[in-house]
Amino acid sequence: TPRVFSGVQPSGGLTLGNYLGAVRRFVAMQDEFPETLYCMVDLHAITVWQDPAELRLRTRQLAAFYIAAGLNPEKAILFNQSAVPEHAQLAWVFNCVARIGWMNRMTQFKDKAGKNAEKASLGLYAYPSLMAADILIYHATHVPVGDDQKQHVELTRDIAAKFNHDYGVDFFPMTDPVIEGEATRVMSLRDGTKKMSKSDPSDASRINMSDDADTIAKKIRKAKTDPEPLPSELEGLKDRPEARNLVNIYAALSNRTAEDVIAEMGGKQFGEFKPLLADLAVEILSPITGEMNRLMDDVSEIDRVLGRGALRARAIAEPVLKQTYEIVGFLQP
Ligand code: ATP
Ligand code: MG
Fold first, then answer.
1. ipTM for this prediction
2. Binding site: residue ranges?
3. To the nearest whole percent, how much of the chain has pLDDT over 90?
4. What pLDDT score does 117 carry?
5. Are the CB atoms for 38 and 90 separated by under 8 Å?
6. Domain with 127 in it: what CATH number?
7. Residue 58 Cβ < 6 Å to ligand 1
8. Are residue 32 and residue 156 in the same domain, yes or no?
9. How confident is residue 36, by pLDDT bands cut at 50, 70 and 90?
10. What pLDDT does residue 254 have?
11. Where does the chain bind L-tryptophan (predicted)?
12. Above 90 in pLDDT, residue 172?
């Protein structure tokens, strides 16, 4: 049976990249699939330092964002990862299935650890193994993610296949990443070759879901571009990463293809295109921001949603962990 799982880290303010690349897809899939689970992956967040009070606040803000963006907690299962201990328990088993060489190939670790990888946490290194457990503890078949997570979902398949092979079972399914739309990789507003990230030190590099209309307009006005006008064909954006990025964002926000946008906007200078993009971004984002703020006024409702979500998630995860332990040969007195 098809089942959807995905997550976002409560590791910082949420970005337009998180919305277009992930959460908007989550919302669409809650209606297309019988069962969807969307997690606030707090265990992943602490792979880099998080202030405890901030982490708690951001976990609730992320839940508010999910709901404000259109997730229905009666339908989708919304919960935070640490409230379902089976994730971490299965991750340990996967740590013993995955190979060190596999982890060494992960580009996210290289990007995040930087030059001084010796100083990175062991958790950051093992991150993909925990992510495999997040997915496979629910036997999830579909994982909507941004393009940057493709490699991790592929590793999840490798882990599932090796587990099945080593133990001679057909237990874990092969998961498909769902990477769709015109904004699977929203780039930094300051550097068209870098992914927009909530953990980028430069606030000007991203649009935050908490930014007000003026801030959004200002960041788009100041976004890096080249001096040429928009081309009249998609081909013309080939070596213009910053221009390509703004066109992709416009396309995703207006639910059109980049090709359509170029057909309409080709020939325009950025001085004309940027205000149109800013207006569109504000139109789409400000109702979500407003609803997020409203939900954060009384967090007791969010906490109730998360409490119930964790119970529903555990009801699926518990038997899968039990069967895994059985397969592995753990005595379960
Ligand atoms: P961090 O910098 O802390 O890793 P992040 O912005 O990358 O934060 P994550 O919580 O790691 O956010 O990712 C949550 C989801 O959002 C993932 O599916 C990821 O692929 C997607 N995502 C993140 N950034 C982008 C982006 N720039 N474009 C499209 N999707 C993105
Ligand atoms: Mg990330």
1. 0.98
2. 9-11, 17-18, 134, 146-148, 186, 195-199
3. 98
4. 93
5. no
6. 3.40.50.620
7. no
8. yes
9. very high
10. 97
11. 134
12. yes
Task: Answer yes or no: do 157 and 256 share one domain.
Answer: no
Residues 6+ away with beta carbon under 8 Å from 39: 5, 6, 7, 8, 78, 79, 80, 81, 134, 313
* CA 108 to centroid of ligand 2, rounded, Å: 8
Instruction: List binding-site positions for L-tryptophan.
Output: 134
Q: How far is the CA of 296 from the centre of ligand 2 (A)?
A: 24
Q: What is the pLDDT of residues 117-163, one digit of tens each?
A: 999 999 999 999 999 999 999 999 999 999 999 999 999 999 999 99
Report the residue among 81, 107, 197, 202 best suited for mutation to probe ligand 1: largest number of ligand atoms under 8 A from its CB: 197
Domain shared by 93 and 216, yes or no? no
| Ligand 1 atom nearest to 183, measured from its CA | 29
Beta bridge partners of 80: 40
Report how far ligand 2's centroid is from the alpha carbon of 197 (Å). 7
Is the minimum distance from the CB of 198 to ligand 1 under 6 angstroms? yes
Residues 125 and 148 in one domain: yes
Query: Which residue type occupies 39?
Result: C
The answer to whether the beta carbons of residues 84 and 138 sit under 8 Å apart is no
- Which residues are annotated as catalytic? 112, 195, 198
CA 231 to chain centre: 31
pLDDT of residue 199: 87
Same domain, 310 and 288: no
How many domains is the chain built from? 2
CA distance 100 to 126: 9
What CATH code is carried by the domain that includes residue 272? 1.10.240.10
Instruction: Look up residue 328 and give its two tokens.
Output: 């592995």
Binding residues for ATP: 9-11, 17-18, 146-148, 186, 195-199
